[in-house]
UniProtKB/TrEMBL annotation:
PANTHER family, alphabetized: PEROXIDE STRESS-ACTIVATED HISTIDINE KINASE MAK3, SENSOR HISTIDINE KINASE
Protein's name in the database: histidine kinase
Keywords: ATP-binding, Coiled coil, Kinase, Membrane, Nucleotide-binding, Phosphoprotein, Transferase, Transmembrane, Transmembrane helix, Two-component regulatory system
Catalyzed reaction equations: ATP + protein L-histidine = ADP + protein N-phospho-L-histidine
CDD domains named in the record: HATPase (cd00075)
Taxonomy, superkingdom: Bacteria
Pfam name, any one: HATPase_c
SMART domains in the cross-refs: HATPase_c, HisKA
Organism: Sulfitobacter sediminis
Organism taxonomic ancestry: Bacteria, Pseudomonadati, Pseudomonadota, Alphaproteobacteria, Rhodobacterales
Length: 461
């Protein structure tokens, strides 16, 4: 009960209402004390009127008048003359004097609280103004015990009334909050629990219906989250199915390519100089294709295998990449340019770095071919103090907006029609495995530039 939101709301409401009632109680008790003493002044003034009517009063009548007014003495000042109108014996000397002619609220509250705390019976003097302008000033002496008992009785009644008001108010507020807030929250929680049982079921996505603005915003956000999650789960299932199919295809393709490797020995034995020159590149391409099939089998299971780092000749690697892509540019006015420092070596996995650079160069070549106007693909490398920087640029038409928004996301960052978007996603993953970065430097109507940064030390870029 007390750990629930409704229980805590009920308790807090009751406490806050009680605090408000206490803040009302303090000035109320001060006002009661002031009215009590003013009432005694009025009674004393009425009693003094009898003496004004007849200068000689019977002592018994005078005592009765004072007892009825609940005072010991009455002093009335008229025409600048201070007269003792009625008097009787006082049990003790006057302890304090209170002037009620123009008191401040803080003084009244202070004196009232002090009187409530002080239980000792005292005789006090009270000064006030006579009613109906019956004189300049009236003074009385009175006991404090009856006034204190009256104040305590009034305070108890105020506290009881405050407690009843607090309980009723808290209960009504609890019912209102339960209807307006707690039930809608419970409904949202129920939707979340039902959705968690079968998140693939789009029928379980919440339909916002709350009338409270904040709850409606929460329901809208929950619906968006559930919709995105359902779509992601469906895509994950499709990717799992695709991964299973790709694994089977890669397995069969690997067997085919392995068989093709058996014929490369005879090709290398050919006396044709062109064949002898192209045979090593063919062997290298088939070997890379076999390795790609093997690594693809692990694509849907986890992530790319970690790189095996060695020192690689960047110029030779880039030459292999360019030679492979140059064969696909026959009939197209596409040229290749390389600016690589002589003898530059980089620390990387040669197969994975080849895949990254081949993907970037292939994308650049396809972009130029899609425009049909030819162009140039440039490769530039720089040996810096802490990193190796490799840039691949082209003079193509630039990347479309969709490809820029989802550049390194699988199946979303395809830059050409029919592309899967896997190439750049895999390339970025391979570069991250080296502790490096692959990023887009620029893309516009003048061309596109990608930058590959590899660290020299053990830390990541």
């Amino acid at each position: 009960m007390f750990n629930s939101l409704s229980g805590r709301l009920l308790i807090l409401t009751t406490v806050f209402v009680m605090i408000a009632e206490v803040l009302i109680f303090v000035p109320s008790i001060a006002r009661f004390r002031e009215d009590y003493m003013l009432n005694r002044l009025e009674r004393a003034q009425i009693a003094s009127l009898a003496l004004l009517a007849d200068d000689m009063l019977d002592p018994a009548l005078e005592a009765e008048l004072l007892e009825n007014a609940q005072v010991f003495n009455v002093v009335l000042r008229r025409d600048e003359v201070r007269q003792l109108m009625l008097s009787s014996d006082m049990p003790q000397t006057i302890a304090q004097t209170y002037d009620l002619r123009d008191p401040s609220a803080l003084v009244l509250i202070r004196d009232a609280l002090a009187r409530m705390v002080k239980a000792e019976n005292e005789v006090i003097r009270v000064i006030g103004s006579p009613v109906r302008e019956a004189g300049l000033q009236i003074e009385i002496t009175m006991e404090t015990a009856p006034m204190r008992m009256a104040m305590i009785d009034y305070g108890i009644r105020i506290l009881i009334l405050s407690a009843v008001i607090s309980i009723v108010t808290a209960f009504l507020l609890f019912l209102a909050m339960r209807a307006l807030l707690l039930k809608p929250i419970a409904r949202v929680v129920g939707h979340m629990q039902r959705y968690a049982e079968a998140p693939e079921d789009a029928r379980r996505i919440i339909k916002p219906s709350a009338s409270v603005t904040e709850l409606r915003e929460a329901e809208d956000a929950l619906r968006t989250l559930q919709t995105d999650l359902t779509q992601a789960l469906k895509q994950k299932e499709r990717l799992a199915q695709l991964g299973s199919a790709v694994s089977k295809i890669s397995h069969d393709l690997r067997n085919i390519l392995t068989s093709a490797q058996l014929f490369t020995d005879r090709i290398e034995a050919s006396k044709d100089p062109i064949v002898r020159r192209m045979a090593p590149k063919l062997v290298g391409s088939i070997t890379r294709a076999v390795h790609l099939c093997e690594s693809t089998l692990a694509f849907g299971k986890a992530e790319e295998p970690g790189p095996t780092l060695t020192m690689v000749s960047l110029a030779e690697l880039l030459e292999d990449v360019v030679e492979s892509e140059r064969l696909a540019t026959v009939g197209h006015d596409i040229s290749f340019g390389a600016d690589v420092p002589l003898g530059m070596m980089v620390r990387a996995d040669p197969e994975q770095l080849y895949r990254v650079l081949s993907n970037l160069v292939r994308n650049a070549r396809q972009a130029l071919m899609s425009r049909g106007q030819g162009g140039e693909i440039g490769l530039r490398a720089e040996d810096r103090d802490a990193t190796w920087v490799i840039e691949v640029s082209d003079t193509g038409p630039g990347l479309p907006m969709k490809a820029r928004d989802h550049l390194f996301q699988p199946f979303q960052g395809g830059a050409r029609k029919g592309g899967s978007g896997l190439g750049l996603a895999i390339a970025a993953e391979l570069v991250r495995g080296h502790g490096g970065q692959l990023k887009l430097v620029k893309t516009d109507e003048d061309g596109t530039t990608f930058r590959l940064i590899l660290p020299k030390g053990d830390g990541a870029v």
